[in-house]
Amino acid sequence: MAKILQSKGFIIFLIIILVFIIIGFGKEGYKFFRVRQNIKSLEREIEELEKENQELKSMEKYFDSQDFLEKQARLKLNLTKLGEKLIIIKIGEGIEKKEKTVEELSNFQLWWRYFFEKR
23 and 15 in contact (C-beta within 8 Å)? Predict the structure, then answer.
């Protein structure tokens, strides 16, 4: 029995088994590492989604509030409260509007202006 334990073949066999065991542990360790990374990224994503959910809930509360309804009624329907007066200012009345006329030039004329005329 002592001769078998000291033979080169047995020692090589033990080294091969040891290498396979080390490789197996390495693979499992790497899998464990990847799983932990995935868990951490999913936890971060959960936190972000919870924050977004809270923001959406607060927006929902605001949209259901009287303040929002009153603001929209004032903006879109021009409604006022009792005692308030609505003043509408028309923009553009009495102001001269200058429109640029677009000259229709041929392609050749456009290129000539591009290269030879100063701007």
Answer: no
